[in-house]
Design a protein that fits this description.
single chain, mainly alpha, Rhopdopsin 7-helix transmembrane proteins, two-stranded antiparallel ribbon, about 0% strand
Length: about 350
């Protein structure tokens, strides 16, 4: 005997199924975010009173904001699902109709705002990492970063317009003449794909250079395949495609990926911060030292032991400090500490 809802089509039921499954996937993602946040917080607290306190405080504030936004988004999703499937389950047309009619209620708007803010914070970190990796690349940073920065600023503008559009109480009705959903998500995806490719290409070039310079897998913590994928936030870029393709086809499957998208982006961001706290990310200082030694005519490995562990590398009696924290993670202009110098 069937107890299926009456007055609901199979399309309505499928829409509700994908919505609920997306909420469950979002909860799983939030669990991973919680674990990564705890790991990052622990590592950064350990460095608070050390030589990298300034960087640690910055990242502690950053990951705390990201975690708060992820929590607000998760709470919004959970409450909205509870309203649709439990508290207001007799809404005419069922949960699917409730979602379409009540998407702008305060509890859902909190989630939308948290989603957009998370997107801005995560994209900003990714653009900053791209700038660090391309420092001293032989081309002016203004040229290299012009397009990513312009796309980021445009994405912020699109996000504001999207929030105005989905807020039915907004007095700016003129912005409702265009559906800003696809432009906003498409531009964010394009930015992430562009930066992802740029970071992977740059790290791959240095992967070959480091391998040739140090004869082996030394420095793999900076240039391994896993490092490239983490540093480039490949996880979020690939997941965005899984959402955007069915969304463009008006397929309800997009809801599964849309609801988890914010947690996936936070996850990718926290992975970058975690590697930074471990001292395993590529920095401008690392690049300068590899470039200096690759152009040196005095390099010789005969009978010498060579290590490249992320702390110091020994090359023919010379020590190179390659710890990620030795250069300030806030930009190229910060002055490195005295211990950063190459000692001969």
């Amino acid at each position: 005997m069937s107890y299926a809802p009456v007055n609901e089509t199979s399309a309505d039921l499928f829409n509700e199924e994908t919505w609920l499954q997306g909420a469950i996937l979002c909860s799983v993602g939030y669990g991973v975010v919680l674990a990564l946040f705890a790991m990052c917080f622990y590592l950064l607290i350990q460095q608070w009173k050390g030589s990298h306190s300034r960087r640690s405080v910055f990242f502690l504030v950053y990951i705390s904001i990201e975690f708060i936004l992820a929590s607000l988004f998760q709470g919004s999703i959970a409450k909205f699902v509870q309203l649709a499937f439990i508290e207001d389950r007799n809404f005419p047309g069922g949960p699917a109709a409730f979602e379409a009619a009540e998407f702008s209620i305060p509890v859902d708007e909190i989630g939308n705002v948290a989603f957009v803010l998370t997107n801005w914070f995560s994209d900003a970190l990714l653009v900053w990492r791209c700038m660090i990796i391309y420092t001293n690349c032989g081309v002016s940073l203004y040229i290299v970063m012009a397009l990513p920065c312009l796309m980021f600023l445009t994405s912020v503008s699109m996000g504001i317009l999207w929030l105005i559009q989905i807020c039915t109480s907004s007095p700016f009705g003129i912005f409702n003449t265009i559906n800003w959903t696809i432009p906003f998500f498409s531009l964010s995806l394009a930015l992430n794909i562009l930066v992802t490719i740029a970071i992977v290409v740059r790290l791959y070039v240095y992967r070959r250079r480091v391998a040739k310079l140090l004869n082996g897998n030394h420095g793999s913590q900076y240039t391994s395949i896993a490092a490239m994928l983490v540093e480039s936030a490949f996880l979020y870029s690939s997941f965005s495609i899984l959402f955007l393709v069915p969304f463009g086809m008006n397929n309800p499957l997009s809801q599964i990926f849309l609801q988890a998208l914010s947690q996936i982006q936070t996850m990718a961001t926290l992975l970058i911060v975690f590697r930074t706290a471990q001292g395993k990310v590529w920095t401008a200082e690392t690049q300068r030292q590899v470039t200096a030694y690759s152009s040196s005519n005095a390099l010789s490995f005969g009978g010498r032991s060579t290590t490249f562990t992320g702390t110091t590398s020994t090359l023919k009696g010379k020590e190179i400090s390659t710890r990620a924290g030795d250069e300030s993670e806030f930009g190229e202009g910060s002055k490195p500490r005295a211990s950063n110098s190459v000692s001969v």
